[in-house]
Amino acid sequence: MASSLLTRQLAISLQQNLRLAAPGSRYVSKTATKTVSEFEYDAPSMKTAVPGPKSQELLRQLGEIQNVGAIHFFCNYEESRGNYLVDVDGNRMLDVYTQISSIPIGYNHPALMKVMTNPNNVSAFVNRPALGILPPENFPDKLIESVLSIAPSGMTRVQTMACGSCSNENAFKTMFIWYRNKERGYANPSEQEVGTCMINQSPGCPDLSILSFMGAFHGRTLGCLATTHSKVIHKLDIPSFDWPIAPFPKLQYPLEEFVRENAQEEARCLEEVEDLIVKWRQKGKPVAGIVIEPIQAEGGDNHASPDFFIKLRNIARKHGCAFHVDEVQTGGGTTGKFWAHEHWGLDDPADVVSFSKKLLTGGYYHRDELQPDKPYRIFNTWMGDPSKNLFLSEVLNVIRRENLLEEVTRSGKTLLQGLYALQTQYPHILSRARGQGTFCAIDACNDATRDSIMIKARNKGLFMGSCGEKTIRFRPTLVFKEYHVHQLLNILNDVLAEHK
Amino acid sequence: MASSLLTRQLAISLQQNLRLAAPGSRYVSKTATKTVSEFEYDAPSMKTAVPGPKSQELLRQLGEIQNVGAIHFFCNYEESRGNYLVDVDGNRMLDVYTQISSIPIGYNHPALMKVMTNPNNVSAFVNRPALGILPPENFPDKLIESVLSIAPSGMTRVQTMACGSCSNENAFKTMFIWYRNKERGYANPSEQEVGTCMINQSPGCPDLSILSFMGAFHGRTLGCLATTHSKVIHKLDIPSFDWPIAPFPKLQYPLEEFVRENAQEEARCLEEVEDLIVKWRQKGKPVAGIVIEPIQAEGGDNHASPDFFIKLRNIARKHGCAFHVDEVQTGGGTTGKFWAHEHWGLDDPADVVSFSKKLLTGGYYHRDELQPDKPYRIFNTWMGDPSKNLFLSEVLNVIRRENLLEEVTRSGKTLLQGLYALQTQYPHILSRARGQGTFCAIDACNDATRDSIMIKARNKGLFMGSCGEKTIRFRPTLVFKEYHVHQLLNILNDVLAEHK
């Protein structure tokens, strides 16, 4: 664990600010008395251990229909509000996992309720169109006011999809099509290509590859899964492609204290990327695209520096590979900018950027050059869902109106400082606090301890997520304010103080 | 083209019934005056050629955002009702393609509008849960009253997904997991499997395969696409798996006239299936599952007999392969039974049945034995969408209340008889009329003629779909009644009479 003078000083200053003293003491914040939004509760409230008896009975019922091993508890979404998730046993928890980071502005936000009660919107819900052949009249306008209003730099084209996996699958296909079109000089495919593609053989189905990183998560459909390398349970027993996998930098935290060491580690990984590109070209399986998360999420909240991504983007350009930034989890404002890649400061950050989760619809942006040359190459029945675009428009209105990116930056800073303080106070339990905006994480000493902390916290009204081997990940909403941070830190502190 | 005495006799009898005489004459049906449902129009009404000027302007606008080559026209979904799709230029068309077969009970059905205005349902729309970890209280009940109420014979387990491709991808994964668990006797995976799966290598990512059929369509994500063999444009330039592809029977229509020839053709294909299973096992890429559509749709509406499917199911069982029936397009009542496989008359028709489109949510059923042994093996963020289950429940209520399967059988019979009559009258243009329920199709003499007929019909107010090389496919709603059939046949007859 990194524990430099700077960290200790920061922790001391935080302890003073937050009046954090001995184990068992609680964070008390000046902002804790701030008025909460009228639609939200003011604190967690627990009635039973979680899962409570009602959840357990429902678990038994659902177990006759599906594998229920991943279910935490059953929810009363009607009663949930803002940052508070209410379960069927009447327990109200501060939710900093938010349906795997997919609730942008909290439960039952009034702005989203209004979408439902606007009679002009009914048709978008009850008549789901095949958007690729018969779009509704307002489709271009709705795209412009929703997904295109937040398009990444250099991108004016977008394709919506139903979920994150479909978005990445189709982004991969877009890169393959672009790459082969380049290779054959945009000429028509040969007879041999036409013939072989129907029977899954090269050259029609070419031996192209996507380079991904160890620890990555890009989804679980077979194409995506070939680029996912975060957990055994995702991959075991599923056939895959022989595609190159580069090491993702294993950095030391806090990043600002290990600049030199981290730069060396990043240089090592970048060198390996170039080696793999060359090697796979020699193997006859050229790298059509490189896919990467700005922060590896499922794989354990692994960060890299802007410099790493800038150099990687250049390597992709140099070798003629498309550069695909997967912002399914990092996008939507949670890092304090709408897209995590904005932190890199590039005008031309990527060729493809995919999204889902907090954007409520899946999809991906791409540069003009990657536009498929013919219709029906990128296609499916639904191609997204206009009713989700309606919700997204409202979410974006709320983000702008309430300056939520500033809120995220403010809350995120407080959260990260609090985590630094906690790991200083409990160095035998916690380490490697890290984050950008509220997209924060901290490691436990092992997975059993991590799981135990999470269960105890849940029983005290704090619902968190896990990732990697022994990491706790924080994925609150964009309306997660400083007083919510203090509730979080108070509960976590109580759990740690009691931890044997 | 098959043109036996029986067909001719049938056609003559139909001509008398429907008063179809010389080219140019029109079908007049006794039921044509039947009162239409209060929520529907009574006939097509055309104001411009399609696409009209407003559609063309919107096409230009959307062209700056996406490839628009597949778009027919822009729609006014608010004004569309029942079987009639209204476009932005005020043209009202009888829609027998229904958003690629995905509108079950017509546009703006009052029962679906009510789902939207019921305040108890609002939360399901605005708080999309991560169903695999935090389901809503009513989730087991809603599954039971929606998807489970129409579960195929022998199946009590279901997993919802966001779309058809995700459903098939996860169905494949379910079969791979089941197959490997069988192989290792349900023991824990070896260290070597655990290690290799993270880098996409065997044995962790085993060389297993799915056997599919030439002409099949199972989706366009990379796993699905390896089993799709209907059109070059779907497959070209996308890497694939070396999986076995069997011939799908090329039958002669009407089926009842070519029983002996068709049985021979089916026997040939079944023999090839067994050969491929043996060959791929020897290649070290055993067939974990066989996937097939009850009627190949995208590939050209290719039928096979119940006997073929019964024997195929037995071959799968004999060789220890899972049998996956893809009912994404055939399911939902359009063949006159809720599932097309019900026509086979089997108690144990399949190990896996996937669905989407008319069911409004994707998903798949499976036998108990295929239940994944551990959580998170079949998983993604959303795992479906409870708001779609609400709509599905209402669709099923309407189907039951209005006996729509009987309606489909009745309308389908009239439609197929009408198509027989048309191909008898225009043997130089049409052939191979075929269908089950309203899931009907007819071939044109070539693709240019097919496309020309479709455009002319569209301009007269009939919107149809295409499939295969030169096929017109009919995919009307379940509220498509006999007088709609007569409208369809009248317009088609007018187009054919004018056809040069």
UniProtKB/TrEMBL annotation, chains A, B:
- The record's EC number reads 2.6.1.19, 2.6.1.22
Q: Which reaction does it catalyse?
A: 4-aminobutanoate + 2-oxoglutarate = succinate semialdehyde + L-glutamate; (S)-3-amino-2-methylpropanoate + 2-oxoglutarate = 2-methyl-3-oxopropanoate + L-glutamate
Cellular component, GO annotation:
mitochondrion
| GO BP annotations listed | gamma-aminobutyric acid catabolic process
Pfam families noted in UniProt: Aminotran_3 (PF00202)
Which GO molecular function annotations are given, in alphabetical order?
(S)-3-amino-2-methylpropionate transaminase activity; 4-aminobutyrate:2-oxoglutarate transaminase activity; pyridoxal phosphate binding
Which UniProt keyword terms apply here?
Aminotransferase, Neurotransmitter degradation, Pyridoxal phosphate, Transferase
Q: Which cofactor does it need?
A: pyridoxal 5'-phosphate
Recorded hits in NCBIfam families, A to Z, give: GABAtrns_euk
User: What is the annotated quaternary arrangement, including any partners?
Assistant: Homodimer; disulfide-linked.
Q: What is this protein called?
A: 4-aminobutyrate aminotransferase, mitochondrial
